[in-house]
Amino acid sequence: MSRYLPLLLVQAPARRPGDDPGLEGFEHEVATYLSDFGPDFKQARMVVYPELHLCSAEGTPDERTAQLEAAAEPMSGPRIQRLGEIARKLGIWLLPGTVCERGEDGHLYNTAPVFSPDGELVAAYRKCFPWRPFEPYQPGKEFVVFDVPGVARVGLAVCYDIWFPEVSRQLAWMGAEVIINQAATTTCDRAQEQILVQANAIFNQVFVVSANMAEPAGMGQSLIVDPEGRTRTVMPGATPGILTDVLNLGEVERVRQFGTAGLNRMWSQFRDDDPVIELPVYGGRLDPKTF
């Protein structure tokens, strides 16, 4: 049975602090994008926005931190409830960009929520690698995947996480066939980041979807990469816009079975009688029996 995941990736500038507090404008924007596909399109579409799209901050480091402190809410707060309503009303899988979470420990977290077409908060991932010293967030400590029933298992990584290969490898070990990387890259290293998106796709044989913030602050250049590392579609610049695609999850099965370029089958590399490889830097090991 074919498994297809329709995607709508929005490359957009972050909303200014205090803009659209009731999220009416955000809801209207998403609804407008979806209307472009016409009323006959019935399958639930996954809509992906960049990092901190709804919780941006401006000014000096102290000013940004103060704005984030003011914007922070727990995951049970009104913003999350409202986003769930939007997902349910529009019948979509909604990844609205990360939000500033006030954790139960009082710390700020850069957290990526995921809402199902029923409006349920099905996943929330706290960014493990905040970009220091610029970001005032506490690091998360758990990797997160969620299921689109009958279609795919999806892993979450936020911006700088893509620079740490352990993140995507762990997500792949947890069964992720697609990794969503929501980014707010405003610096000149977006070109390197695009290569890392391709590399993460190649060495895990997964789709990687990288949604980056648009100008004036963001560098844009959002892209979607297939399990062989080929770019399926890309925004050539930083102007606001959307990318659409339909991921065929059978491609993950094909590449893992026959190999990247028909050659490299990393998931079939080990035999049960191969030696255990110690990983002292992690305090762990690669055991062929569990790979």
Plain-language structure description:
By secondary structure, the protein is an alpha/beta fold. The chain has one domain (about 5-285): Nitrilase/N-carbamoyl-D-aminoacid amidohydrolase (4-Layer Sandwich), CATH 3.60.110.10. It contains 6 helices and 15 strands. The protein has helices spanning about 25-35, 60-70, 80-90, 165-175, 190-205, 250-260, and strands at about 5-10, 45-50, 95, 100, 110-115, 120-125, 145-150, 150-160, 180-185, 205-210, 225, 230-235, 240-250, 275-280, 285. It has a 6-stranded mixed sheet, covered by helices on one side. Strands 3-2-1-13 form a 4-stranded mixed sheet. The longest helix has 15 residues, at about 190-205. It starts with a strand and ends in a 5-residue tail after the last strand.
Approximate helicity band: 10-25%
Integer count of domains: 1
Report the biggest beta sheet as strand number plus sense, adding barrel if it closes: 6 strands, mixed
Tell me the span between the first and last alpha carbons: 26 Å
DSSP strand count:
15
Q: Per CATH, what is the topology?
A: Nitrilase/N-carbamoyl-D-aminoacid amidohydrolase
**CATH architecture classification name:** 4-Layer Sandwich
Topology, pairings included?
Blueprint (H helix, E strand, L loop, with lengths): L3 E8 L12 H12 L10 E3 L12 H11 L6 H13 L2 E3 L3 E4 L5 E8 L5 E6 L18 E4 L3 E7 L6 H9 L4 E6 L6 H15 L2 E6 L10 E3 L5 E4 L6 E8 L1 H9 L18 E3 L4 E3 L5
Parallel strand pairs: 1-2, 2-3, 8-9, 9-10
Antiparallel strand pairs: 1-13, 4-5, 5-6, 7-8, 10-11, 11-12, 14-15
